[in-house]
Amino acid sequence: DISERKRLQERQARLARHAVLHVEVNAAVGESEKSLRAMLQICAAAVVRHLEAAFARIWLLNEEQKVLELEASAGLYTHLDGEHSRIPLGSFKIGLIAREQQPHLTNTVQADERVSDKDWARREGMISFAGYPLLVEGRTVGVIAMFARQSLELDTIEALESVAPIIAQGVERKRTQDTLRETQRLIQAIFDNSSAVIHVKDLDGHFLLVNRKFEDVVGLRSPEILGKTSFDLFP
Q: How far apart are the C-alpha atoms of 229 and 206, rounded to whole Å?
């Protein structure tokens, strides 16, 4: 009875940590001001902290080069360089997860055929591994993986599985936002540096936007122009 009560208490404690993991991951992917790498680093650190991982890493797929690039690493290893910083699609366990779009789970790392460096696993006391593809509408955007020095309980595996799609959607959203910002920056640069006189008005004739050439021609700066009409400027 005491053993069963202890197992129940341990499970409840794990579930509480898993709930906090969800909160932290959702908060990280919803933070629009953070860079993509900073967002992923927060997620990797949360996995280490709340799933008792020895270390956790996140790779993103470079579609053009067909290579998984390491973007976040927390726990035992925090460097982003080294032999596993760029993994060809289909190579090693991470590349296979990305290509097959299937998770890989094991509580026998030191005997797992997909673990190439078993001496390292024995030396570091690694027992378990869990890796999930980051998928968006059937398309691989990356892989999240963790190693642990203890066997993974089913609820821990389920917790990692449940945050993988949240992170994948966060990556897709962040990339879309970055592309939109770059497009807006380019359009603004073209607008500002055009040799043509350009302005935008609303239906009542108030100036909403003017470029530098317009400012030069009328001899006024934007704060003196915007919100006014041509009749206000040239009575």
A: 5
What is the b/e burial string over 50-69, where b = at least 16 CB atoms within 10 angstroms of the residue's CB? bbbbbbbbbbbbeeeeebbe
Q: Residue with structure tokens 């699609």?
A: 89
Evaluate whether 193 touches 212 at the Cβ level (below 8 Å). Answer: yes
Q: How far apart are CA 12 and CA 225, in angstroms?
A: 63
Q: Note whether 146 and 53 are within 8 A (CB).
A: yes
Q: Is 207 within 8 Å of 228 (Cβ atoms)?
A: yes
Averaged confidence pLDDT in the chain: 92
Beta strands in the chain (DSSP E): 55-62, 67-75, 86-88, 104-106, 128-136, 139-148, 199-201, 207-210
Cα distances (Å, whole numbers) of residue 70 to 80, 88, 107, 143, 180: 6, 11, 24, 9, 24
The answer to whether 220 and 207 are in contact (CB under 8 A) is: no
Cβ pair 11, 158 in contact under 8 A = no
Q: What mean pLDDT is predicted for residues 151-174?
A: 93
What is the spatial distance between Cα 77 and Cα 22, in angstroms, rounded to a whole number? 23
Amino acid, res. 74: A
Please tell me the pTM assigned to this model. Answer: 0.78
pLDDT digits (tens, 9 = 90+) for 186-223: 888 888 889 999 999 999 999 998 999 999 998 999 89
